[in-house]
Amino acid sequence: MELRVSKHNAVTIAEVDGRIDGMTAKEFEEKMAEAIPEGGGPMVCDLSHVSYVSSAGLRAILVIAKRFSKDGNFFSVCGHSGPVAEVLRISGFEKIIPMHESRADAVEKAEG
Amino acid sequence: MVDMAKKRQLELPAKAENLEKIFDWIEASCAAYDPAKQFMFGMQLVVEELFLNVLNHSAETASADGRVSLTFSPQPNGIMLVFSDDGSPFDPLSEAPEPDTDAAIEDRKIGGLGLKLVREIPSQLSYNRTDWGNQLTLIFNEGE
User: Fold this and answer.
1) In chain A, what residues touch B21 (CB-CB under 8 Å)?
2) How far is B36 from chain A (nearest CA, A)?
3) Are B105 and A55 in contact (CB < 8 Å)?
4) Domain range holding A12?
């Protein structure tokens, strides 16, 4: 699991590569927490290159999303497809975290 | 025809570091039997959730020498995967509370999703208490 962090204007983009499972979820959560912009600001988590997410990964995503929600900052997930999208759907995450198919849409919403 | 020669078995200690071995074993089992490949993600996911559940449960009961067993069997209508552990009786199908997936983000509980995924992803699943321990039989097919 790798996390690449970049900026698109004011939006922080965290692009995940690999698997978010019971072995990597803790590292994912730590890297995501480090990537949270100081002083607030929106963040988009791009899952396009994630092939596998288990409940350990969902838990980590939820922890991060709760932090943004508590601080009143925007956080969304984009790029998920196939079985990863199915896991997010079963978990009902689309009801609590904004989800976008494309990164461009996610960034546009984050800037809005 | 179903190739029963593709039946595979794995048994190992219920230790966190063995999760990777289990992932590799499922990947190898699917690689050796083409019709199983489409179910690899679901198999790894369900088995990870069951395995981590066994680890949590054995930590609570301080039993350090538990074992788990996996059997992969091609069937005429899909793949049968049997996951067993030799721990104290626990039926993840009836004893696990259903998480509230309609709760608002502030109220959403951290956790509880693993066993929901176990219940939703396989086409069929059933629990048995055997002489050896807890046994979950999972069927993966295209039917559902």
Assistant:
1) none
2) 15
3) no
4) 2-111
Strands A11-20, A2-8: pairing is antiparallel
The reply to whether A72 touches chain B by the CB within 8 Å rule is: no
Q: Residue B112 has what DSSP assignment?
A: -
Contact A58 B113 (CB under 8 A): yes
Give pLDDT, residue B129.
Answer: 96
Nearest CA in chain A to B119: A90
Residue A95 contacts B where some CB pair is shorter than 8 Å: yes
Q: Is A22 on the interface with B (CB under 8 A)?
A: yes
| pLDDT tens sequence across B58-100 | 777 766 789 999 999 999 889 999 999 999 898 988 877 788 9
Q: What is the token pair recorded at A87?
A: 């896991």
DSSP string, A47-92: EEEEEEE-HHHHHHHHHHHHHHHHHT--EEEE---HHHHHHHHHTT
pLDDT per residue as tens digits for the range A71-108: 999 999 999 999 999 999 999 999 999 999 999 999 99
What is residue B69's predicted lDDT score, i.e. its pLDDT?
A: 97
- Please give the tally of structural domains in chain A: 1
Homologous superfamily of the B4-140 domain (CATH)? Histidine kinase-like ATPase, C-terminal domain (3.30.565.10)
